[in-house]
Design a protein that fits this description.
The chain is mostly helical. It has one domain (about 20-100). The protein has helices at about 25-35, 40-45, 55-75, 85, 95-100; strands spanning about 5-10, 15. The two termini are about 25 Å apart.
């Protein structure tokens, strides 16, 4: 890692910000962060927003939204400024992931 690498601080340590050239390495590091945040399955689309109207369902929905928002923030903070225009207007963590991959 060069001395000019931009870093992103998370509650789970520092990771380099994604640039145009380093997606494979960056993806592995962000995956680890999202796993510790318990948000990776939301980003992949494997964990959908829980359904229901009762108190237990609303609690699960609140947790899901908090994790999804954490994942969205991590994805934005983990990119260099030149990549942000691609995801700035996205608020769906799955869509951000799919856009990021391209």
């Amino acid at each position: 890692m060069s001395a000019t690498t931009e870093m992103c601080k998370t509650d789970h340590g520092f990771i380099p910000k994604r640039t145009h050239d380093d997606y494979p390495t960056w993806r592995k590091k962000v995956r680890c962060v999202l796993l510790t945040m318990r948000a990776f399955n939301i980003v992949t689309g494997d964990k959908l927003l829980p359904e229901g109207n009762g108190p237990a369902a609303r609690t699960l929905q609140k947790e899901w939204h908090q994790r999804a928002n954490d994942a969205i923030a991590q994805n934005h903070l983990g990119c260099t400024d030149d990549l942000l225009p691609w995801i700035n207007d996205l608020d769906d963590p799955v869509e951000i992931r799919e856009t990021r991959q391209n």
